[in-house]
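Narrative summary of target 7.
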Amino acid sequence: MAKARLTKQGALVPTRLSFGLLLTGLAATGGAAWANPTADADIAAPLRAAQAAKPAAPAESQFRNLFDTWQRAEIREKPPVARVGPDCSVYLGQVLALDSFATIAAKLRTIPTLKGEYETTAAFEARAAAARAGAPGKVIIRGMLDPEYLTYDADNGALKVQAYALSNYVANYSGVFGYGQPLYGKVDYGGLGNRDVVVADHEVPVGSYIGSNAFGAKVRVTRSTRLTQAIFEGKPAVYDEKLFVGQHKGTDAFIGAVPMTIAEARALKFSGKVAFVAEPKWPFFAEGIHYGNPRFDNPNDVTNPTQVIIADIQCGLLLTGANRVVGAFATY
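Modeled conformation, tokenized:
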């Protein structure tokens, strides 16, 4: 797109300039050539004379001027968009019944996502509509709290929350949406930085074996199975887009402060919970397996089954051990 706009600007800017000089030249001749388009007068002569008198700009200067013009056009064509997250404050103070990932996944996995080869479109749509009728709408799924990223500010009587406290794991979606999978090319995802939250990640060792390379060097490789469960919204609309509204950039990742006493903060860091408000959307549920590639510097052979609920993530919630919401953080 940038190339097309650059070419467009490169063509339009000289055209506007030439037209202005042409009018000036015609005015000087009393407009005779304009009144009689069949006249033999050389109406381009004033333009050629003006261009010949003007010293040629160096190539570097011409390119810089052209680039500046294109950059100004980019700014005009892409105005900043105001982004407002949902009102998550409605959950503050509520005692919630949290949904488990497994329960919601079991309901969503029954919804058909792709039409069968020998199925008409009408039959598929009817089948999918019937399945969606009994599917859950907005859900509140429990996640994993990482208390390392909760810091108590004793001077201000508040618990400072970083995004990593609510979401601090990364899922590999290549085995779910990648090449060879049913949803390949239908769900856009990235290698890193997706709009998602990993709500469970359990790894269990299952054995080991001796591995070797082409040179005969050997190493003991540990085999394990890691189950990852995630809520996936999609690939970010822009580079380095954060999940939470107002999230600080970089490793700080501050998203808010929650007023509480020292005793409450200690209890929350010990037994607190995290949950996410989400609304499932097509294709609702997907799963796949990613296989690791053990190396000598990392001799781990990990088989990674990944289960994914596809949904719009609306709020991240911080709860006490008794499921009372004390912090609510909106997403974009």
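Confidence is low (pLDDT under 50) at residues 1-41, 69-83.
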